[in-house]
Design a protein that fits this description.
The chain is 26% helix and 26% strand. By secondary structure, it is an alpha+beta fold. Strands 4-6-2-13-10-11-12 form a seven-stranded mixed sheet. A five-stranded mixed sheet has the order 1-27-21-22-23, covered by helices on one side. α13 (472-484) links the parallel β22 (459-462) and β23. Bound molecules: dioxothiomolybdenum(VI) ion. Residues 211, 241-243, 246, 348-350, 352, 507-508 line the site of dioxothiomolybdenum(VI) ion (MOS).
Length: 736
Amino acid sequence: MKFTTPATTNPIDQLKVVGRATDRIDGPLKTTGTAPYAYEQNKAAPHAAYGYVVGAAIAKGRIDAIDTGAARRAPGVLAVVTAESAGKLGKGKMNTANLLGGPDIQHYHQAIALVVAETFEQARSAAQLLDVKYVAQPGAFDLAQARSAAVKPKDGKPDSKTGNFAGAYANAPVRLDASYTTPDQSHAMMEPHASIAAWDGDKVTVWTANQMVDWGRGDLARTLGVPKDKVRIVSPYIGGGFGGKLFVRAEALLAALGARAAQRPVKVALTRPLMFNNTTHRPATIQRVRIGAARDGKITAIGHESWSGDLKGGQPETAVMQTRLLYAGPNRMTAMRLAVLDLPEGNAMRAPGEAPGLMALEIAMDEMADKLKMDPIVFRILNDTKVDPEKPGRPFSQRRLIDCLRTGAVEFGWKARQPQPGARRDGRWLVGMGVAAAFRNNLVMKSAARVRLDGNGVITVETDMTDIGTGSYTIIAQTAAEMLGVTLNKVVVRLGDSDFPVSAGSGGQWGGNSATAGVYAACVRLRQAIAGKLGFDESQARFSDGQVSEGERSVPLAAAAFHGDVVAEDHMEYGDLDKKFQQSTFGAHFVEVGVDSDTGEVRVRRMLAVCAAGRILNPKAARSQVIGAMTMGVGAALMEELVVDRRRGYFVNHDLAGYEVPVHADIPHQDVIFLDETDPMSSPMKAKGVGELGICGVAAAIANAVYNATGVRVREYPVTLDKLIGGLDGKVMARA
Ligand code: MOS
């Protein structure tokens, strides 16, 4: 099925199941510990040996020699895999560095060996016996230093120019020119990267934790140098990904190579201290934002530049993209520059581009409002646009940023905010409020599914879609139940297996809308097949309460499968509606913080997100997505920072003791409001993404609240107390 014209009324609009706050159908499996995560697939792949990954101890250079003799002779050891023993390997399309390094080393903790043994402890112990002689080379590890040598990225990331930015900016009566930095960040998901691999002849099955089953299948095949149909990927449950599991990583490749060498199933999990340098991370940015406005607050010029680094052949962090679409203004420019750094590979992390981009842009908007002596909400509303500001003939499919800001202002009690920084106190706490806009594009992706009706009236949905903790199982079940007119307990959902039809996968907040649209397409076909079997006119038949009816005649759905299961398969693909209309999701984040006037400690006191993101398929799961993203935004604002060792080229704080993320005690009560919206341009589901929207803008709202509380403007994330305390002296005196 191809989606080429705006959606009209369809069975989803009944909203008997879709759109209702629904508990996760996979909840009991998870709360009882019986959902098999990758490392626990012991039933599917019994008697697996254990693999232990060894990471490179240098950031750049080569392995001169690697002596595996002692490790091979150690108790219980079954095999040692190195680049030398593995033979020729290809490289996946999605990786910048090789997953198995050697002899050349491209980054610190790049995998250089897998030791396979009967037990985990034996593998770990033997791994210490590897004798590796390195020849280290100097590398570039400092973005600020490499910045001057940064170049325009090669593929598809051009500078944008509209009108005359330089002239308009120079002539603007009110101007801001400010630079901001965001640090390298790590996904730090709960479940480490983990895989079990087993060969059957020339075919390998890998039970893994991967967001994008089909990408993983293709890249693993390319890396192993085998045809794609010789690889099966199984990834039914994933303990968080945030972009860190979009691609096949070292543990999956090494499990496959280890299983081949040991001739039995092998399981490999990355240890926590390996994850930070071995896998991908969100690259640090240096961003410069310039805004020029007339005295009435209308933006006349807006410019955003971003510098980031990556390994040779890598990609920039696309931190300027939202600035092309978020605010009006006739004169505009954006540019990205990419420096070669020899740090571990940079790549997508929740809302890549927008998350760090809005961390800068939305402080800049606050600073500009301050200069204009305008309320920051009023300033944003004044500069709203209904069309793509670079291509005014191209409207947004839906754009309710103003509604988000206004609704949030009322619900959060914005009126109580003191425009003057440092004006509100609660004992020793300086109290402030901040706001930021949220913006994230809505991407639509081709997605297929297979649905089956059996003689018990049960609908089984199969698609290689993944559930990374987001609630995919549940919204897919809701979609099938709505389409076939059955209750949720009559639907079985099977996900995350490359034997199933290829889905959109989980990434870029496209999964919810795109994967359910694929299920919708398959269900349309199943309805046709069922109507045909039961002798109904498909266009007239009603599917409800487990019955199929037309006029006076009503037959149980299950009757269609009396002589055998009825199966249908289809996909949803897209025409050019996403080109004619800009599809984006919008929101507004409101935060109240307290800053300790003596120590500079920041505590978030209240948070509210208002989101306009199309139809919300499951308000309960969507709320969970948004509060999780808000929590991640608190981490970005106040804590998260991979600290670069600029001499040796690695992230120093590579565990959860040193890489701090928020814990429950850091997070106050959070409110989420979804505006009632449907977007007929997105798909027949009329839904859009929301899982990434929730993080976009949060960190800036917090930084803005800290400014409002203290009068100290921090432009270098994270906003830690050392950056505040020097500016608080006056406040402490005032208290005394
Ligand atoms: Mo997302 S960062 O595309 O998983």
